[in-house]
Amino acid sequence: MIDRQEATDVLVVGGGTAGFGAAVAAGRQGQNVILLEATSKVGGVMAFCPGMPWGGGYPVDQIIGGLVEELTERLAAMTPPAAEKRPCTLENFGPEIIYDHDIATLTMFEMLEEAGVKVRLNASAIEPIVDGSSIKAVTCFDRNGAFQVTPKIVIDCSGDGDISAKAGVPYVLGDESGNMMAVTISFHMIGVNWDVAFAGPDPYFTQYAAKGIAQRRLHPDLAKLYLMKAFHKGSVFCNSVHVRGVDGTDPLAVGKATQEGRRRCLQLAQFLQAEVPGFADAHMSMLSPTVGVRETRKLQGVTRVTGEDLARGTKFADGIVSCDNPIDDVMRASASMTHDAVIEKGSYHTLPFRALIPEDVTNLMFAGRIISADATAFASVRGMPQCMAMGQATGTAAALALNGRRSVQAVDIGQLVAELTKQGVNRLGASI
Question: Looking at domain 5-176+296-422, which CATH architecture does it have?
Answer without folding.
Answer: 3-Layer(bba) Sandwich (3.50)
